[in-house]
Amino acid sequence: ATINHEAKVDWLELNTRGTHLLFRDKKRQLHLYNLAKQERTTMLHYCSYVQWVPQSDVVVAQNRGNLCVWYSIDNPDKVTVFPIKGEVEDIERSKGRTEVVVDEGINTVSYQLDESLIDFGTAVDEKDYERAVDILEPLELTPETEALWQQLSTLALADAQLPIAERCYAALGDVGKAKFLRKVNKAALAHAQALEAQGLPPSESCVVQAKLEMLHKRFKSAEMVLLENGHVDDAISMYKDMQQWDSAVMVADQTKHQEAEGLRRQHNQWLMETGQEEQAGVVKERDGDHMGAISLYLKGGLPGKAASV
Description:
With 309 residues, the chain is an alpha+beta fold. Helix content is 48%, strand content 20%.
């Protein structure tokens, strides 16, 4: 990667996984560069000290009278701040403890970091998502732990660890996504036996793949997955559930579905019930029912549009 930066850099270091680069310039500005996303974030101004916590993705830095700790490097806006009266000298890790050593002139003071949050990073690095959940579950939901739950949910979805992702969204209080993933997990279990016979994990089910596309709001991709595997009714139901009736009717027409006309009637009824006479008129006009369109435009108080049909 090539990073354009105007000021001279006086310190830089990669994390142990080689995914993020920290660097500080002569203006004492601390920056983070995400190598995968090719994105740079300014994390801190007036930075006099910065260091990765050894064997972790945790960052410790000093900004004047503040000791700043980032437990989730993927969420640089989530930072834990301790007021201090001296200068950070070192980070020490031994016997299950991590401490930041601060020289206050007369005394040397140590600030203990949260070992659970540091261990979480190790568990994630090893893709031990069960252990990562076990680390987070006893902890209170704070901005720091919330960021870690979000990080874990993203990683779990990317690695098709769907039960883990469901637990993450439940912990975050995202009821909608947690319920949706529960349905996905049930679908995965329903197809598990047939897929295992082929040597495939349950997450490879086309229904599961389609539902994951829906979760990411990639509905056209979900439609393609379902239609390619003959799940026409599921594709139509997906659009009906979202009240995207135009798309449901389009799928029915493309596949010559026997319920295409019934869907048109349901669509028209829904538009009328929700007071969308103009849109109902557009549908009628598109289908060649000009008299029906004129009637609906007039009912909707659009005589000009009725006259143009």
